[in-house]
């Protein structure tokens, strides 16, 4: 009897263990889109949210350098050794395979003995900046799952920006700034990911952690994906349920880890000292031996397989969905608006499958153009018409009876019928859309030209810098309207003659035109630090003049007479409204 009980308990334990085995510590693998189960009606399909496995995405990218001829070796040139910056007898020659350093060596799998690497031309045109843009493109939306790691075979750059694009390189957003001096390079206080929290995880920071100049034992730069995941999933990423829940309900968080392209902007090579050694310019260049990017195809939780065919990644869509990202329902499966799958509830999620269309409605109309705005209603004076409109909220089936389909491009499933105009308008547009058919973007967002109108990413946030822009809206190309003295697509750069100080402010002094006088020094372009005996905006006045004590026995002579232009400049600056420091 005891033996039979023991065997029954053992069998039960084996059964429970086998059921729980797919979900040990990481809740929700999402590696199956459907499975067959037995019900009272027989064998049926049970649909689940699903996604491709994380993999090395560098196998599928295309790399582009700007300027295109920045790679060393054409013509051949010598450069200095990594370990000894004054041993300058190494050669780069594009015509000799053993001496060439082409871009593909940033992603090769040959190992590091000897290490292979891409290398730029040296800084032989100093003081002209040595700047390189390295663009990594996938022609597909991908979701990052691990840290981005860049390994340098030169010193890590003094200044660098990592950028991302969500619209195939049409517009760019900063991911992270890197500098030996963040305040001097980018007018930002230095931070690290450890300074962030759940509430500030999307903040764009400048870090000095990875920019230590010309050293041989510090070669790696990170963009910390996992550290940001850890704010929700815990230090060892054991509570993935919490992370999946946040990704499921917070679109901005999900978009933060989503890219179509990455761009590495190398702005200043590792110098290692305060001044550039102009006698040994062959010391200064960029060299990268490895770039690691891990992620998965974005398939909106409707596929587990992503196929690489004809140099293009495409999701093999399930759940009656279609498109490169499984971003819409198949023909004849549009019985309800398309929706991405959901990670919730853990561990299987929700598939949100597309269901067959209702035959009485028929197929929804196809739209090959952007819908016009409200002017298409041919209302000359909306204020006169509005009080007479009779609005009634109807479903898609009811709208068909009004001979106008409730077409909202998947951004809403509710419409209102305006009886007077015999017109249907969408209600409660989602995905940052607005308009009669949810065909326009909300203020503060602009149209993603690479996305279809039924894509949930059709509208991209402007990300206008609040200190540099007049408002948070941008034009159709994503360019913000900047304040005086400010420039750049997001109004985060200053025009010449201005410096960033809680926004772009006119320079009070500089080392080119607005020199501090009488031994004064310019501090951050916002004021002159004057010697004890002098005062004034540009240290142009004797301090004793203000006290009326400038005499022959004071030891202070009259101030030197400046040029008429200088006197006019100091007068204008003196009458300008003071800056607050």
TrEMBL record:
<keyword id="KW-0221">Differentiation</keyword>
<keyword id="KW-0449">Lipoprotein</keyword>
<keyword id="KW-0677">Repeat</keyword>
<dbReference type="Pfam" id="PF00055">
    <property type="entry name" value="Laminin_N"/>
</dbReference>
<keyword id="KW-0217">Developmental protein</keyword>
<dbReference type="InterPro" id="IPR000742">
    <property type="entry name" value="EGF"/>
</dbReference>
<feature type="disulfide bond">
    <location>
        <begin position="462"/>
        <end position="474"/>
    </location>
</feature>
<keyword id="KW-1015">Disulfide bond</keyword>
<dbReference type="GO" id="GO:0098685">
    <property type="term" value="C:Schaffer collateral - CA1 synapse"/>
</dbReference>
<dbReference type="GO" id="GO:0150011">
    <property type="term" value="P:regulation of neuron projection arborization"/>
</dbReference>
<feature type="disulfide bond">
    <location>
        <begin position="530"/>
        <end position="539"/>
    </location>
</feature>
<keyword id="KW-1003">Cell membrane</keyword>
<feature type="disulfide bond">
    <location>
        <begin position="482"/>
        <end position="491"/>
    </location>
</feature>
<dbReference type="GO" id="GO:0098632">
    <property type="term" value="F:cell-cell adhesion mediator activity"/>
</dbReference>
<keyword id="KW-0524">Neurogenesis</keyword>
<dbReference type="InterPro" id="IPR002049">
    <property type="entry name" value="LE_dom"/>
</dbReference>
<dbReference type="GO" id="GO:0098552">
    <property type="term" value="C:side of membrane"/>
</dbReference>
<dbReference type="GO" id="GO:0007409">
    <property type="term" value="P:axonogenesis"/>
</dbReference>
<feature type="domain" description="Laminin N-terminal">
    <location>
        <begin position="46"/>
        <end position="296"/>
    </location>
</feature>
<feature type="signal peptide">
    <location>
        <begin position="1"/>
        <end position="28"/>
    </location>
</feature>
<keyword id="KW-0245">EGF-like domain</keyword>
<protein>
    <recommendedName>
        <fullName>Netrin-G1</fullName>
    </recommendedName>
</protein>
<keyword id="KW-0325">Glycoprotein</keyword>
<feature type="domain" description="Laminin EGF-like">
    <location>
        <begin position="462"/>
        <end position="511"/>
    </location>
</feature>
<keyword id="KW-0424">Laminin EGF-like domain</keyword>
<keyword id="KW-0472">Membrane</keyword>
<keyword id="KW-0336">GPI-anchor</keyword>
<dbReference type="InterPro" id="IPR050440">
    <property type="entry name" value="Laminin/Netrin_ECM"/>
</dbReference>
<dbReference type="InterPro" id="IPR008211">
    <property type="entry name" value="Laminin_N"/>
</dbReference>
<feature type="domain" description="EGF-like">
    <location>
        <begin position="505"/>
        <end position="540"/>
    </location>
</feature>
<dbReference type="GO" id="GO:0048787">
    <property type="term" value="C:presynaptic active zone membrane"/>
</dbReference>
<dbReference type="GO" id="GO:0098978">
    <property type="term" value="C:glutamatergic synapse"/>
</dbReference>
<dbReference type="GO" id="GO:2001222">
    <property type="term" value="P:regulation of neuron migration"/>
</dbReference>
<dbReference type="GO" id="GO:0099560">
    <property type="term" value="P:synaptic membrane adhesion"/>
</dbReference>
<dbReference type="GO" id="GO:0010975">
    <property type="term" value="P:regulation of neuron projection development"/>
</dbReference>
<dbReference type="InterPro" id="IPR056863">
    <property type="entry name" value="LMN_ATRN_NET-like_EGF"/>
</dbReference>
<dbReference type="Pfam" id="PF00053">
    <property type="entry name" value="EGF_laminin"/>
</dbReference>
<keyword id="KW-0732">Signal</keyword>
<dbReference type="Pfam" id="PF24973">
    <property type="entry name" value="EGF_LMN_ATRN"/>
</dbReference>
<dbReference type="GO" id="GO:0050804">
    <property type="term" value="P:modulation of chemical synaptic transmission"/>
</dbReference>
<comment type="function">
    <text>Involved in controlling patterning and neuronal circuit formation at the laminar, cellular, subcellular and synaptic levels. Promotes neurite outgrowth of both axons and dendrites.</text>
</comment>
